[in-house]
Amino acid sequence: MEEELTRLVARYMEIQESESHPENMLLFRGRLYPPEKTNLEKLIAESAGLGFYLHSREVEDGLVQIVFIPMPVSRKNRYWVNIILFVLTFACTLAVGAMNEGANIFSHPILLYKGLPFSLSLMFILLVHEMGHYVASRLHRVEATLPFFIPFPTIIGTMGAVIRIKSPIPTRKALLDIGAAGPIMGMIASVPLVFIGLKLSSFAPTGNMQGALQLGDSLLFSFISRLVLGGGQAGQDVILHPVAFAGWIGFFITSLNLLPVGQLDGGHIAYALFGRFQRFVAWGIWGLLLVAGFFWTGWWFWAILILVFGIKHPPPLAPNLPLDLKRKLVGWLCFALFILTVSLVPFSLVAVK
Length: 353
Known about the structure:
Elements: H1 2-12, E1 13-21, E2 25-32, H2 36-49, E3 52-60, E4 63-70, H3 79-100, H4 116-139, E5 148-151, E6 158-162, H5 172-200, E7 202-205, E8 213-215, H6 219-229, E9 236-239, H7 242-257, H8 265-274, H9 278-292, H10 298-309, H11 325-341, E10 347-349
Antiparallel strand pairs: 1-2, 2-4, 3-4, 5-6, 7-9, 8-10
Helix pairs in contact: 1-2, 3-4, 4-5, 4-7, 5-6, 5-7, 5-8, 5-11, 7-11, 8-9, 8-11, 9-10
């Protein structure tokens, strides 16, 4: 294998030095043949085909050091965990959806069916979002699990869903593709459901809404509401259909995931765009969360979580490979989605007079 890797490297760079290290790691120093960035990308792709991660860094002007790291043997995925969590999350969201429709599921369990519009819509959005990440990971030969759904007894019945990335991310291009795929696919799933749900929504006199949960309007949700419902009716509030409520949650989840901090989707995108300067963006956003907490205390909870899980993003294996223009535009599109879907006060109660 050492001879095969040496021949591979020699096709793309002028080797000046090579070293063998324990655990089958190989190190090469030299100068990449022009075009340097293209050849490094080809070298990364071909090394993955041979079962190696490739870590690269520029030692000095024009001199590059690359290290081949053997990929570990993949452990067999325990799909039964994914299935159980999916079923539990479906049950939680089904129960919440039914209770939001006024059903007493404890005395009349058969009324659980009333939760289907909400549960199926929300589960669909979460699944599409996470499968976006999963497919993008596989396209870049990054090992990732299938989605893990998180059941939780909240007003929506879940804390969302996640995939676990089990191998290093090779380049900033892969980082952006993986980070952006989830929010973009999630929005593609959410927007039609918002339109459908708003069409099915109804109005009620404002005086009858006291003590009810009030949802904050993002720019995008407000725009779609005006398209579907017009200017509304004087003295009337909209009672969202469960499908519209699920779509609203899809927007909310998108905005949370696009916070450019840590290893959230927005953190992936921010590091892909800004490199090591991502940490300055992340600290700035964290400070804004502290200020936003005076309007909705939930932002303080998120600020604490971000500190616990880490505010900075680790670099990919080849951090110096730049993004192409298309991916830069996709990255900025995602941050535009963040602005369009974020709500300063997502949840509140209608005041009782």
